[in-house]
Structures are given as C-alpha cells and as structure tokens.
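## tool: complex_structure
## caller: assistant
## args:
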Amino acid sequence: AQKVTQAQTEISVVEKEDVTLDCVYETRDTTYYLFWYKQPPSGELVFLIRRNSFDEQNEISGRYSWNFQKSTSSFNFTITASQVVDSAVYFCALSEEYSGGGADGLTFGKGTHLIIQP
Amino acid sequence: KAGVTQTPRYLIKTRGQQVTLSCSPISGHRSVSWYQQTPGQGLQFLFEYFSETQRNKGNFPGRFSGRQFSNSRSEMNVSTLELGDSALYLCASSLLSTGELFFGEGSRLTVL
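## result:
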C-alpha cells in the first residue's frame, strides 16, 4: 500500500527566511508520480509540481525548489526567501503507475501548515 | 481558460438526506476525480471517471456514488447522509496523459 508522510504539521517562520517542507513516501511500485499542491485559505488546491520516479533531477522554479531522492524515498520542497503570500497548507501526494492513462487516485500526506510572519 | 467549477459551494443537510454535487471540468479534460477532505482523515480519493466510465474507486461505502456525462461534467451523490460526511468535497480534472490534477474550490457540505 502506498503512503505519504509529512511529519511537520505546522511551520512558522519570519518573512525572507528559507523553509523546507519534508515529504517521505512508501510505495512498492517502480513507476510512480509525486506531486506537491498548495492549498490557500480559499480551499482550492493549486498544482505546484509533478515528478515521475525515473527523474531524480532536482527542480527549481523561481523561489521554489524540489529535492527528490529515491534512496531515502523523500521529495522535499524548499521555499527560498519566503513571503507572506506563501502562507498556506502544502500537500505532498503520490500516485502509482497509471492504468490506461489519465489520473489514478492520489494518496495525500496530511499536509504542512506554513505560516509566514511579516 | 475557465477552471474547474463546482456547485454548490456550500450546503447544509440533515442526517438521512441525500445530496448531489456537480463538477464542470476544464474544457478538453476528460478525466474527473473526486476527493473528500476532512480535518481528521485529510484528503481521500473517492473515485475517478473517464469517458463516462468509473475507472478507479477509493475506500468509501456504497452510499457514495458518481457519474460522468458525455460532456465530461460529473456529479457525485451521497445518500443517507451521516454526520461524518461533513467535509469539503473537491473535484479535479486532468488531461489524459499529463496526470496533473486541476482542482476546483470545492463544495463544503455540513450535515446536521
């Protein structure tokens, strides 16, 4: 069975600090997909990144970066120079190999509530 | 490009009633998934529809059902509501091959 663990329930930092959100996953599949979503107070989940299990390259997008390490089954997310607008709940999610295309059900972690204080 | 639209946004029901939630996916998206979000259980997968067929189903009782129409719009229905069904129900749509789910703002159901 697949499982996603986000051990940090809540993180509070002061604006401009760097912050890393941890994500550890469990799966028996060799082909799987990892995601990060952001959920602001409005409730809508906003897609941030998708990474497949064969691509271990780290990714950087502006102030956001992701570190994927299969050896430790981790897919951590770092925000550099955090801003108040980054305050939200962040979810890591896992999807195992697609069966016939489209979207299989995602297994989400419990989320990390990130608070950026001015 | 319009996003995923869910209606109604908020609703209140009493135990034993039934409810139907609607989801209009992004134009061109043929896959629609439903998720339940509660403070205790977090985000849980309900089911996924593609071309009017249910392809995947999560671990929910038969009171939870859904369908998809030929225009890819989807509805989910919960019968014989229980207090524990109070939740935010999120709909997501995706293209066939990318796997990126685009979520709506959700329908917040309160069962009294």
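## assistant note: DSSP finds no helices and twelve strands in chain A. The mean pLDDT of chain A is 90. Handing back to user.
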